[in-house]
Design goal:
The complex is a heterodimer of chains A (469) and B (56). By secondary structure, chain A is α/β, with parallel strands linked by helices. Chain A is built from 13 helices and 23 strands. In chain A, helix 1 runs parallel beside helix 13. In chain B, strands 1-2 form a two-stranded antiparallel ribbon. Chain B is an alpha+beta fold and 56 residues long. The chains are: A alpha/beta (469), B alpha+beta (56). Chains A and B meet through helix 9, helix 11, strand 21 and helix 12 of A and strand 1 and strand 2 of B.
C-alpha cells in the first residue's frame, strides 16, 4: 500500500523499517515480501518530483567543484533511479580485494538483480591484450517508481509512506529502538525489530551523523561515519580514430559486437604492473559531427599521409572517430568526507550536508597511464591513433564532467576504526541497525554502482529474512 | 616365399602422420596480434598530444 501520512498506518507489528525508496530500499522491500515479511518504507519526497522538497537536498561543497547535491540525486519515490542512465555491470573479482566479502557472495543474486533491473544476465568481457579487455554494459530502463508502484499499491506487506522525513534513530545499549520522523507536521517515533538506512550515498551518512550528534551513547564514537567518500571521476581523456575491423581481427569470434561504442576496461594486469587503479573508457563516435571533422583535419596537418588514408575511410562505418571519455576508480581518502554544516539547516532544522572533496593527483596519473598504454596498443596493432588531452598528459588536472555516483561514507569492514558496517551491513557495535547502498562500498571499481547496490540489497534482505523466519 | 607387395610399412606411415600432425599443430597460432615495432612519435597539436608511429 502507498500512504501520504504515517497516521494511516499501524506500525506496531511491522518488523522492518526501511528509510528511503530508491533501488536499494525497493529491492529490500520486494525481497522481504517474497519471504512474507512486512516492511515500512519511509520516503521523504513525494510520488513525483517536487522542487520545494528537492531543496532539502542542498549541501555545501568544500574543495574541488563537483555537481551540486540538489542536481545529482532525486528526493522522490524511486530515488535517483528517476533520472539514472541505466548502465549496469557487476564489479570485477579484483575489486573485492579490500572488501570482506567476495564477488561470489554477490554473484548468487545476479539472476534476481537482473530481474529487478529488467536486463539480461549477460555481461561479456574479452581479453584484448595484457592490459585491456573489451567489455559491454546492459542498459536498464527501469524507473523504480514506475515499475513498482502498482506492485506496492496491491501489496499487503509493503507499506510505503511518502512525505515523511526521517530525522535520526534512538536507542540504548547498542540496541536501536525507534526512528524519529516527521509526517504531515507531526513527530513520530516508530518502533521496530530491524532498521535499514537506504537513502543514498549522502543521506545515509548525514542521518547517522545526526543520530550520533543527538545521542552520543548510542553510536560508537570511533566509527568513521561520512569518511572515505568517493565518486567515479568522469572526464574527457582525449580523442582519436579507431578501426573497428582491426579490433574484430584481433578478437575474432570473441569480439563483442553490439550497438553503441566500443567499451574498453583496464585488466587486472595493468593495475598490478603499473600500480594504478582501474577504469573504463569509450569513444563517442558519432558520424558527421563537428568533432569528427576536426580530428581528421588535425591528422591531415600533423601526419598528412596517415591523414589522407583516414580521410578516405571517413564515410565507412568501420572508422570510429571521436572523443574518448573515461570513468575511473578513485582511491579512498579519509579526508574526502561528509560532515554536518554547523550553521545551515533544512526545513526540519536538521543540519545540511557539508561535503569535503579534493580530486586525487593519482586519478590524473592513472588516466595518463591508461591512455598512453591504449595509444601504444592502437599504434602497434595499427588499429587506430590516439591523442591525449594535454592537461592530462602534463599531469596538471582533469575537468570533471559530472559527479553522479556517491560511494563510501559508511564503508564495510572488520575494524570499527576504519569502517562503519560489518560484512552483513550491520552498523558496528549495534544490534539491529543496517545500512544499504553504495555508501557501503570499499572501492568503486570502474562499473556503475546500481547493479551492485541491488545485489547487496538482495543479500541483506536474505540476511534479515533468516533472522525473522 | 612370395613377397606380398601390398604390405604397408606402418611404422613409416605412423612416423609420417605424426610428423604431419605435429607440424600442423605447431603452426596453429594461439592468438596472433600483429605488432609493429615502429618507434613512437609524439606531436603536441592544439590541446592534444598525438601518439603516432614514426612513419606516420
Amino acid at each position: 500500500m502507498i500512504f501520504n501520512n504515517l497516521d494511516q498506518i499501524d506500525t506496531s507489528k511491522i518488523p522492518v523499517v526501511i528509510v528511503g525508496s530508491g533501488p536499494a530500499a525497493i529491492t529490500l522491500a520486494i525481497e522481504l515480501e517474497k519471504n512474507n515479511i512486512d516492511s515500512l518504507v519511509i520516503e521523504a519526497g513525494e510520488e513525483k518530483y517536487n522542487h520545494e522538497s528537492q531543496q532539502n537536498y542542498q549541501g555545501q561543497i568544500v574543495g574541488d567543484s563537483i555537481t551540486g547535491l540538489t542536481h545529482n540525486r532525486l528526493r522522490q519515490f524511486g530515488g535517483s533511479s528517476g533520472h539514472w542512465g541505466g548502465w549496469s555491470r557487476p564489479l570485477e573479482e579484483y575489486n573485492f580485494e579490500k572488501w570482506n566479502i567476495k564477488k561470489k557472495d554477490l554473484d548468487k543474486y545476479s539472476d534476481d538483480a537482473c530481474d529487478i533491473l529488467s536486463i539480461k544476465n549477460d555481461f561479456n568481457k574479452t581479453n584484448l591484450d595484457e592490459y585491456f579487455d573489451q567489455i559491454d554494459f546492459q542498459y536498464s530502463k527501469v524507473r523504480f517508481a514506475k515499475k513498482y508502484k502498482n506492485i506496492i499499491l496491491k501489496s499487503n506487506k509493503i507499506n510505503l509512506v511518502l512525505k515523511t522525513q526521517v530525522s535520526h534513530f534512538e536507542g540504548n545499549n547498542k540496541n536501536t529502538q525507534f526512528v524519529v520522523c516527521y509526517s504531515n507536521g507531526k513527530k513520530y517515533m516508530v518502533h521496530s525489530k530491524y532498521f535499514i538506512l537506504a537513502c543514498g550515498g549522502i543521506e545515509n551518512s548525514r542521518i547517522l551523523l545526526w543520530t550520533k550528534e543527538k545521542n552520543t551513547q548510542f553510536i560508537d564514537p570511533v566509527l568513521p561515519i561520512g569518511k572515505y567518500w568517493m565518486t567515479h571521476p568522469w572526464m574527457l581523456g582525449g580523442n582519436g580514430v579507431i578501426k573497428k575491423s582491426k579490433f574484430k581481427k584481433i578478437l575474432k569470434e570473441n569480439f563483442i559486437n553490439y550497438e553503441g561504442p566500443i567499451h574498453i576496461a583496464t585488466s587486472k594486469n595493468i593495475r598490478t604492473e603499473k600500480n594504478i587503479l582501474g577504469g573504463s573508457f569509450y569513444m563517442n563516435a558519432i558520424e558527421d559531427t563537428k568533432i569528427h571533422k576536426e580530428i581528421i583535419k588535425d591528422l591531415l596537418c600533423i601526419a598528412p599521409e596517415l591523414g589522407k588514408k583516414i580521410a578516405r575511410k571517413v564515410f565507412k562505418k568501420d572508422l570510429k572517430c571521436g572523443n574518448i571519455f573515461l570513468q575511473l576508480e578513485e582511491e579512498p581518502n579519509i579526508n574526502n568526507r561528509i560532515t554536518l554544516d554547523t550553521k545551515l539547516k533544512d526545513s526540519l532544522d536538521i543540519p545540511i550536508t557539508k561535503l569535503f572533496y579534493k580530486q586525487s593527483k593519482s586519478t590524473v596519473e592513472n588516466a595518463k597511464i591508461i591512455l598512453e598504454e591504449f595509444a601504444n596498443f592502437c599504434r602497434k596493432t595499427d588499429s587506430g591513433r590516439i591523442a591525449i588531452l594535454d592537461e592530462i598528459y602534463q599531469l596538471n588536472s582533469y575537468e570533471s564532467l559530472g559527479v553522479n555516483h556517491h560511494i563510501g561514507g559508511t564503508r564495510m569492514g572488520g575494524n570499527p576504526k576504519t569502517s562503519v558496517v560489518d560484512k552483513n551491513l550491520k552498523l558496528h557495535n549495534n544490534k539491529n541497525l543496517y545500512v544499504a547502498g553504495s555508501s557501503n562500498f570499499v572501492s568503486g571499481g570502474y562499473a556503475n554502482p546500481t547493479y551492485t547496490i541491488v545485489q547487496m540489497s538482495l543479500r541483506l534482505a536474505n540476511e534479515i529474512s533468516e533472522k525473522l523466519i | 616365399m612370395k613377397k606380398n607387395k601390398k604390405i604397408i610399412d606402418f611404422s613409416k606411415r605412423k612416423f609420417n602422420i605424426y610428423f604431419l600432425f605435429s607440424f600442423l599443430f605447431l603452426s596453429l597460432p594461439k592468438k596472433k596480434i600483429k605488432l609493429t615495432d615502429n618507434p613512437i612519435k609524439k606531436i603536441r597539436y592544439k590541446n592534444f598530444v598525438w601518439h603516432l608511429n614514426e612513419k606516420d
